[in-house]
Amino acid sequence: MNDIKKIVDQLELLPHPEGGYFKEVYRSGGTINEENLGEDFSGQRNYATSIYFLLTSESFSAFHRIKQDEIWHFYKGAPIKIHIISNDGTYSFAIIGNEIESGQTPQFVVKAKDWFAAEVIGKGAYALVGCTVSPGFDFNDFELPKRDMLISRFPEHSNIITNFTRV
């Protein structure tokens, strides 16, 4: 727990609505106009954004989705399992971490509009990652659904949805 507090303090991380802690560290100066973004977006978006994201084994990142691809970059700590449910209902997962020879990957892309959640593998552990989004992240592009909504849409995944939603 000491390591977690040190990282949260040194990087000035704040609680994230989906779970864990975060801090935006990059937002490009350039923007993309609404007419060039497509019908899913309203308003302008920066070219790209990046955050630090710290997750602990005492919490999880709840199922959510955004309108853009999100690239996860592993930095430090225990591996993270990312649970993904695509729009067609296909479940998959990826494990990001530094043990490449064990099948972990240090970088993973969650595709735009896929539902995803994440957990740290191991007890009493943490993981520090970075997340890069392009076009840049805006909370207008963020959807944190209620458990019942996801289960009604994907009943075959009710167990995993129940495990990684809070309400």
Automatic annotation (TrEMBL):
InterPro entries: Cupin_DUF985 (IPR009327), RmlC-like_jellyroll (IPR014710), RmlC_Cupin_sf (IPR011051), YML079W-like (IPR039935)
Domain DUF985: 6-144
Pfam families xrefs: Cupin_5 (PF06172)
Domain of life of the organism encoding this protein: Bacteria
PANTHER family the record matches: DUF985 DOMAIN-CONTAINING PROTEIN, RMLC-LIKE JELLY ROLL FOLD PROTEIN
Listed name of the protein: Cupin domain-containing protein
Organism: Flavivirga algicola
